[in-house]
């Protein structure tokens, strides 16, 4: 009988099968310890929580590698820590990075403010201009970075042509897959080399920790391990344990985020105070075809544009009773934020308008509440805003 591969929900809960012993705890315990007794005279691996080899950190890595189909993975103290160390593992002074323009504002700041100090040049590409990827490559290009689905327009990129372009030239394709989670999309299956997550979001799912993760080949992850030892953004064991607990329900949470996202987007499409809805599950979305062909779910993130602009948005936000105004996403509770004041605050109103993010744009991270309660919350909050 051929062995069938475990499903994603099973992988999220158990990771690869391992031996069980009588009296083992069912829930992986917290090793809330900075250090571990080291065999005297041993030159073997030293266990130390900053090294990323605390058992709680290792347990998470096992499960994420199984979910992403990666050789290895590593967890760090934040999504930004994961993005920073993944790039430092791939790039040296004199190297060139090509990045999508459609990326999280914090990542953009990391590239613009910090990478120059390490002699790493960054060039941005508008993914709508597909030919520009090739045009922007240099002899020194060592990595291409993209985010998909993107924030806040939920654009979905087709990785396969980009992966071919990179692989022909020995360039690493790095993908921030935070918005999808491995339940909706696994970039390595589409040719990516390295996957990054802000574990703060869907992987943990409860808005109570900050964490990050990278998955890829053993050699890239080993390089990140070495960097972690000296740069130090290690994940605390208690936060690791909470992510462990969160990941057990990742697959069912994502199913609910997907259905709530779709239902909310359809409701928003028919609302007179909302002029545009950005959700890849809607046929009107510019990437609907790519999204339908490559994603296993359209996700729980929706962008809505209010007819009444910034004033209407502020009024609505003040009147919401269930959805909370907080700048994060991927938790069980619905969160809303305005890109003009958070992720895209550094741009002028004209620049935001040109990018398709005018004032009055609200980003909604659908939680797993009863979606009828969320739409009713918005319905009530929007009354009289047109
Ligand atoms: C797509 C994406 N990547 C990375 C990050 C950074 O993650 P963290 O806040 O865990 O450092 C964020 C945070 O909002 C994000 O939205």
Mean pLDDT: 96
Oligomer: single chain
Any low-confidence stretches, pLDDT <50, length ≥5? Answer: none
Largest sheet: 7 strands, mixed
Structural class: alpha/beta
Q: How far apart, in Å, are the first and last alpha carbons?
A: 63 Å
- Please, how many domains? 2
Q: Would you state the CATH class of the largest domain?
A: Alpha Beta
C-alpha-based Rg, rounded? 21 Å
List the helices and strands and how they pair.
Blueprint: H1 8-14, H2 55-68, E1 72-76, H3 79-90, E2 96-100, H4 105-114, E3 121-125, H5 132-136, E4 141-147, H6 159-168, E5 172-176, H7 181-184, E6 194-198, E7 212-216, H8 218-231, H9 237-247, H10 250-269, E8 274-278, H11 288-294, E9 301-306, H12 309-319, E10 324-325, E11 335-337, H13 349-354, E12 361-365, H14 371-382
Parallel strand pairs: 2-3, 2-4, 4-5, 5-6, 10-11
Antiparallel strand pairs: 1-7, 6-7, 8-9, 9-12, 11-12
The protein binds pyridoxal-5'-phosphate (PLP).
The site of pyridoxal-5'-phosphate has 13 residues, from helix 3.
Properties at a glance:
single chain, 386 residues, alpha/beta, Aspartate Aminotransferase, domain 2, Aspartate Aminotransferase, domain 1, 2 domains, seven-stranded mixed beta sheet, five-stranded mixed beta sheet, 14 helices, binds pyridoxal-5'-phosphate
């Amino acid at each position: 009988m051929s062995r069938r591969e475990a499903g994603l929900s099973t992988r999220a809960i158990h990771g690869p099968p391992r031996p069980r012993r009588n009296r083992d705890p069912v829930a992986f315990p917290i090793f809330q310890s900075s250090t571990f007794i080291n065999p005297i005279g041993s030159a073997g691996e030293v266990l130390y929580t900053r090294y990323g080899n605390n058992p709680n950190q290792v347990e998470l890595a096992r499960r994420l590698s199984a979910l992403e189909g990666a050789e290895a993975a590593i967890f760090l103290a934040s999504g930004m820590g994961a993005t920073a160390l993944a790039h430092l593992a791939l790039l040296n002074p004199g190297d060139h990075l090509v990045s999508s323009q459609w990326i999280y504002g914090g990542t953009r700041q990391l590239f613009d403010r910090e990478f120059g100090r390490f002699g790493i040049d960054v060039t941005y590409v508008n993914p709508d201009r597909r030919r520009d990827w090739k045009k922007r490559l240099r002899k020194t290009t060592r990595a291409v970075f993209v985010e998909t689905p993107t924030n806040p327009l939920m654009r979905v990129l087709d990785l396969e042509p980009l992966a071919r372009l990179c692989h022909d030239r020995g360039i690493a394709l790095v993908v921030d897959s935070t918005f999808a989670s491995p339940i909706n999309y696994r970039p390595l299956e589409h040719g990516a080399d390295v996957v990054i997550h802000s574990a703060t979001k869907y992987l943990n799912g409860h808005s109570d920790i900050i964490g990050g993760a990278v998955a890829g080949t053993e050699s890239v992850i080993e390089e990140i391990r070495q960097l972690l030892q000296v740069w130090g953004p290690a994940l605390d064991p208690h936060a690791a344990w909470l992510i462990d607990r969160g990941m057990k329900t990742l697959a069912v949470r994502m199913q609910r985020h997907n259905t709530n996202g779709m239902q909310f987007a359809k409701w928003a499409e028919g609302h007179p105070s909302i002029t545009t809805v950005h959700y890849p599950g809607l046929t009107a979305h510019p990437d609907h075809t790519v999204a339908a062909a490559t994603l296993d779910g359209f996700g729980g993130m929706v962008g809505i544009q209010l007819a009444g602009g910034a004033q209407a948005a502020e009024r609505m936000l003040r009147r919401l009773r269930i959805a909370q105004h907080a700048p994060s996403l991927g938790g069980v509770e619905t969160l809303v934020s305005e890109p003009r004041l958070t992720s895209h605050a550094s741009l002028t109103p004209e620049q935001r308008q040109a990018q398709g993010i005018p004032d009055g744009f609200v980003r909604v991270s659908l939680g797993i509440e009863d979606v009828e309660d969320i739409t009713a919350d918005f319905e009530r909050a929007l009354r009289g805003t047109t």
